[in-house]
Design goal:
heterodimer; A: about 260 residues; alpha/beta; Rossmann fold; 2 domains; nine-stranded mixed sheet; about 30% helix; B: Fumarate Reductase Cytochrome B subunit; 4 domains; four-stranded parallel sheet; 8 strands
Chain lengths: ~260, ~700
């Protein structure tokens, strides 16, 4: 089974986020970048399927120069090749639609039976790209997948997806698009030889113009704001448990106004 | 010649007046024994073959033969002085007695030979006479008694109160009984001779018979026997004694008695580098070029690693002190070494050609047990806390735990096979340069409300205060960092911290086997240190201390590194800080030695001096302290791993504090502080006991809280 995995580079979840001057994005200087954690599940699943039944795994990533680090991480995990749509300007203003258009343009020339994406990127949390990609490539999309199995003839996939309060098992003819949820697998820690090998794996670099894409974003970010800083906790004092409970109830009612 | 009557007849009762048949036969048998001994060394699979197998090993090692003079001096002092062996007094004294007894007896036998076969035939003189003979007689009897006392001590230990961790193989018993038989038959010969000669009234030696006090005692049972019977028995036992002695010599080549030669050799080849427990170097450029990292094949060890397995006599001292073993985990350092030895012997069989040559076994054609998994269990590999108690305890100077780190390196870097919880730790170190994976931008937040100079603002300072991840990110240990900053400020120390420019030292990564990650972290730090022309560094954490001091130096980062206890000790001594304020009711206090301060770096007294300077009194030692201190359980990356096997190491250590009856446990290591704090809570002693980092107490006593 040949797979394509869409990979996005995002700020590390622990990194300090500052807004840029006009408040429409974040300050990118000094940020530690990582591969979107949900994309790691996607890469891992594609590599495991390759290890089980053969084929090749190709990464597709839209992002500036530094996104190459995320691509190398994916290659170290076991992907074979990558297409890097290296267009800083386009990537900076791309909304989910524009991103999907660029990815679709890169993917359409590739051979694949499945496309894996993370269920969302942890930076903007839009969770739309896979679905739009499905529309653009005219493929079925199965979201929030926690188990993936290839049928014996390799023509369909039987996947389990999370639904409210339970699981649903779905069979879908390939090719199709799948979005990975936590629990699908445990992404591997790339071994040193794999990290070294990844440095030599082929990465095709393309610009948006090379792909013939001229899509404009359908949405524009007007403003961003940081959540209010967390207030320090308050210790409830009291002589005994009953007094403390009374003080807590009072605080919840009068100060927090939640009861 | 005066005193000429004070002597004895060599070969008395064995060699008559005619052709000295017995004398010639003795030499013939001795020659045969020596030939058998040599053949034993040269036999298929014998010591020489094993050494040839060791020579196939390709792994790098520290220098082992430089500084010949110093090595020789040290080895002689250690071998004859028994310094390390005497660390365990009972076994130490027993071994010392046998060792010195044998040396005396060897000297005695040599004198007999020298007199009988050199001096007498060539010069017709007798040096074994008069006062010297009496001294000779006394000292050799003393030697024999020492041997008997020593061997009986060992027999009691082996048969009566054998510790459960002490191996008991046939050779262990055979050797003891052989030694006892040599000494007893020797004394019997002497006793029977005395009975027939000196003890007879009127014999010229009669007044001096007690100089041969050992033989004298052994003569007592025969006092009623006729002279003829005594002489007959004497002849029989004389030959029995000879054959046991010769048998013993032959047995050396076939048993752990070889340690008579291999242990001194191993002491001579001891690690003389500064680093107390060096790991194999992996040059940074090899990450790009080498095909494999760490060790998964016997032959990837260094030849000295393999020689270590030859030297081990299974005394088990490393087992008796291993915190993992003592909490019922499947790690016995001795067995690691012994398993390597058995594996070497098994592989040697495959490596031996028909013509007796030892050849390299190609990896692809080898189908026997694997080093990792079969020879040494993965659970064993991950159980080690790198506390160095094994190395410290080993009287044969074997390096045990680093052999496990080599295997971790293979598992981690080649196979990504490590306890699952470690993956997050690696990610934390990679993405945020700390094992907790807390945002690296918060590294200096602990100092927000203090006047702590930043290197980036100050430009340069005499000391870099390297806080380390625990002091910077862990709430418990931030208290120690804050205390230290306040103390340094009060003492007017010219220092600065790196703030967010500081990175993880990488100790945990290194000990878990991720040398690649370690070197990335170390390189980043070294670059920053050098950028500020750092020369002196104070660390809060003993792990950072050890890493910066030795491992960074190996990577070209050469600094004077101090642990904060060294600095505080000096500041207190020189009066730069005065400890006049009350520190509260601490009760009796015990100091817990951090492995990386104590065993690794010999910092035992500075922390104790500081505690004594607090003037609170009541400093008591726990059952294990100083060189024999018991690990908290967090070293070697164990801090970040679940402890699912056996009981918990930190609880065992905390129990020692409880048993010592102390109210306060002090330490100078963030990992230890965390483990002891947890231990106190886990054992339900939170009300009556407390743990502190020494820095907190000093700050309090200096009125800085």
């Amino acid at each position: 089974m040949n797979s394509v995995v869409c990979v996005k580079q995002v700020p590390d979840t622990e990194t300090l986020i500052k807004l840029n001057a006009d408040g429409t994005g974040i300050e990118t200087a000094g940020i530690k970048w990582i591969m979107n954690p949900f994309d790691e599940y996607a890469v891992e699943e594609a590599v495991r399927q390759k290890e089980k039944s053969g084929g090749a795994v190709t990464l597709v990533c839209l992002g500036p120069d530094q996104a190459l680090d995320a691509i190398r991480s994916g290659l170290a995990m076991g992907a074979d090749t990558a297409v890097h749509i290296n267009d800083a300007e386009f990537a900076a203003k791309a909304d989910p639609y524009a991103t999907a258009v660029a990815l679709a343009a890169a993917i359409k020339d590739l051979e694949y039976d499945a496309i894996f994406c993370g269920k969302q990127a942890v930076d903007d949390d839009a969770g739309q790209v896979a679905s739009i990609l499905g529309e653009l490539l005219d493929l079925p999309v199965i979201t929030i997948v926690i188990k993936f199995e290839l049928s014996d003839d390799g023509k369909t996939a039987i996947v389990t997806r999370e639904i409210e309060g339970g699981h649903a098992v779905i069979e879908v003819p390939l090719p199709a698009i799948f979005t990975a949820q936590k629990g699908l697998n445990e992404p591997r820690y790339a071994s040193l030889p794999q990290i070294m090998k990844a440095k030599k794996k082929p990465v095709t670099v393309k610009t948006v113009a090379d792909l013939g894409v001229s899509a404009e974003p359908m949405t524009v970010i007007k403003g961003m704001e940081l959540p209010p800083e967390r207030q320090a906790g308050k210790m409830i004092e009291g002589a005994d448990a009953a007094a403390k409970a009374a003080a807590l109830a009072k605080a919840l009612h009068e100060e927090a106004e939640v009861i | 010649m005066p005193g000429a009557e004070i002597t004895r007849e060599l070969y008395w009762n064995v060699v008559g007046t005619g052709f000295p048949v017995a004398r010639v036969l003795t030499y013939v048998f001795a020659l045969i024994a020596i030939i058998l001994f040599v053949l034993g060394l040269l036999r298929k699979g014998g010591l020489i073959d094993r050494i040839r197998m060791m020579k196939l090993a390709t792994g790098p090692d520290v220098p082992r033969t430089d500084n010949a003079g110093e090595r020789l001096k040290y080895a002689i002092a250690e071998v004859f002085g028994h310094r390390k062996i005497l660390r365990e007094p009972y076994q130490g004294i027993a071994h010392l007695f046998i060792f010195w007894g044998f040396i005396i007896l060897f000297f005695g036998t040599f004198m007999d030979f020298f007199q009988g076969d050199v001096v007498e035939p060539l010069f017709h003189a007798n040096i074994l006479q008069g006062g010297f003979y009496l001294f000779f007689s006394f000292i050799t009897d003393l030697g024999g008694i020492l041997v008997i006392v020593g061997v009986i001590m060992f027999l009691i230990r082996r048969y009566v109160n054998r510790p459960k961790w002490l191996d008991d193989k046939p050779e262990d018993r055979i050797i003891l009984w052989l030694i006892l038989a040599i000494a007893v038959t020797g004394f019997l010969i002497e006793g029977l001779r005395l009975q027939a000669t000196e003890l007879q009234p009127g014999h010229p030696m009669n007044p001096y018979a007690w100089y041969s006090f050992g033989g004298h005692l052994f003569a007592l049972p025969f006092s009623g026997m006729s002279i003829a019977a005594v002489k007959g028995l004497h002849q029989v036992i004389w030959w029995v004694h000879l054959f046991i002695v010769l048998g013993f010599i032959v047995y050396v080549a076939y048993s752990k008695l070889l340690h008579i030669f291999t242990v001194p050799a191993n002491i001579y080849m001891r690690n003389m580098t500064e680093n107390p427990a060096p790991l194999k170097p992996i040059p940074p450029e090899s990450f790009e070029t080498a095909e494999t990292f760490g060790i998964h094949l016997l032959e990837e060890y260094s030849w000295k690693d393999l020689f270590d397995s030859e030297v081990c006599i299974r005394c088990g001292r490393c087992v008796a002190v291993c915190p993992s073993f003592l909490t019922d985990k499947p790690l016995l350092p001795r067995d690691v070494i012994q398993n390597i030895r058995e594996h070497l012997e098994a592989k040697l069989k495959l490596a031996l050609d028909a013509d007796g040559k030892v050849h390299v076994i190609p990896e692809e054609s080898y189908e026997g047990p694997g080093l990792i998994g079969d020879v040494i269990d993965k659970e064993t590999i991950w159980a080690c806390t790198t506390c160095m108690a094994c190395i410290e305890a080993c009287p044969a100077y074997i390096s045990q735990f680093p052999k496990l780190i080599d295997l971790r390196r293979y598992l981690t870097m080649m196979e990504s096979d490590f306890p699952a919880e470690v993956q997050e730790v690696f990610r934390g170190m990679e993405n945020n340069s700390n094992p907790w994976n807390i945002g690296s931008h918060t590294r200096a937040d602990w100092a927000k409300d203090l006047e702590v100079p930043l290197m980036s603002q100050k430009g340069e300072a005499e000391y870099l205060f390297y806080v380390g991840c625990a002091g910077a990110f862990d709430d418990l240990n931030k208290k120690a960092a804050i205390s230290l900053a306040k103390i340094f400020n009060a003492a007017g120390l010219d220092y600065a911290i790196l703030g967010t420019e500081e990175g993880c030292c990488g100790d945990s990564a290194k000990k878990i086997g991720n040398e690649y990650l370690f070197q990335m972290l170390a390189e980043t730090n070294i670059e920053v240190f050098n950028g500020y022309k750092v020369k002196k560094i104070i660390t809060l954490c003993p792990h950072g201390y050890n890493t910066l001091k030795y491992d960074y130096k190996e990577m070209g980062g050469d600094y004077e590194v101090y642990h904060y206890t060294e600095i505080l000790n000096d500041l207190i001594k020189s009066g730069k800080i005065t400890l006049k304020n009350p520190v509260g009711d601490l009760g009796t206090i015990s100091y817990h030695d951090s492995c990386y301060l104590g065993r690794y770096n010999g910092i035992y007294e500075q922390p104790r001096n500081i505690l004594n300077a607090l003037g609170v009194g009541g400093l008591v030692e726990m059952a294990s302290h100083h060189e024999k201190s018991f690990c908290c359980g967090a070293g070697g990356g164990r801090m970040w791993m679940e402890e699912t096997l056996g009981t918990r190491i930190n609880q065992k250590r905390t129990q020692e504090a409880i048993d010592a009856g102390v109210k306060t446990v002090c330490t100078a290591c963030p990992f230890c502080y965390t483990m002891l704090t947890d231990g106190i809570k886990e054992l339900g002693k939170g009300e009556e006991m407390q743990a502190f980092d020494i820095a907190q107490l000093v700050a309090k006593a200096a009125g800085l809280e």
